[in-house]
Amino acid sequence: MITVLIVDDEWMVRAMLRTIMGACADIEVVGEAADGAEAVRRARELAPDVVLMDIRMPRADGLAATAALARLLPPPKVVVLTTFDLDEYVETALRHGAVGFLLKDATAEQLAAAVRSAAAGDAMLSPQVTRRLLRRFAEPGNPHRADARRRLDVLTAKEREVLAALAEGLANGEIGRRLHLSEATVKSHVSRLLAKLQLTNRVQAAILAHRAGLVA
User: pTM above 0.85?
Assistant: First the structure.
């Protein structure tokens, strides 16, 4: 059972999310919070697997709360859920350790899939956010491209293949089938490449791959 903490300053949104999550047999909502400060406190008490996190809230916003949650041991997986798709919000949330970023117009299926992906150690971005963000990072004139390419020098050829497939949005099983590897082997490659690149999650790795021009 995947346990979830819902964080939003609007009670109607929390109620809607609780209803959506409650319809999933493998997901259990264990608590709610109305601001970032309460979210951190409740996460310490409840140790949820996944936190659905709003951004704009009183007292402490979702970005500050996400950074604080990343320091917990073990840290919960944070999926940011917001009406705002500004690039700086996405970048900051990912830098603070969020593993997913969805807009509030996401479908119930997308929300449930994001929770399951986060709990499984994968990541999920809203399609429109992904297109905008990765397209910008992949621009040939991006000043970070040379630095990103240098960072990839620490990877083996196989790790680069795995990273390229990961950056295309493939899950571990799909990567394994493409590269003729077991899912366990793919998972090991992903763990090693994240450690080598000093990254927290797969979304950050995908962004780096696109920034380096590893994938089109």
Answer: no
Helix H, strand E, coil C: the string for the chain is CEEEEEECCCHHHHHHHHHHHHCCCCEEEEEEECCHHHHHHHHHHHCCCEEEECCCCCCCCHHHHHHHHCCCCCCCEEEEEECCCCHHHHHHHHHCCCCEEEECCCCHHHHHHHHHHHHCCCCEECHHHHHHHHHHHCCCCCCCHHHHHHHHHHCCHHHHHHHHHHHCCCCHHHHHHHHCCCHHHHHHHHHHHHHHHCCCCHHHHHHHHHHCCCCC
Q: Which CATH number does 141-211 carry? A: 1.10.10.10
pLDDT at 156: 96
Residue numbers of the chain with a pLDDT score lower than 70: 85, 87, 123-143, 216
2-134: CATH topology is: Rossmann fold (3.40.50)
Beta-carbon contacts of residue 191 (< 8 Å; ≥ 6 apart): none
> Which sequence spans correspond to the domains of the chain?
2-134, 141-211
Res 214: pLDDT: 84
Q: Tell me if the bond preceding 48 is cis, omega within 30° of 0.
A: no
For the chain, the C-alpha Rg in angstroms (whole number) is 17
How many CB atoms neighbour CB 82 within 10 A? 21
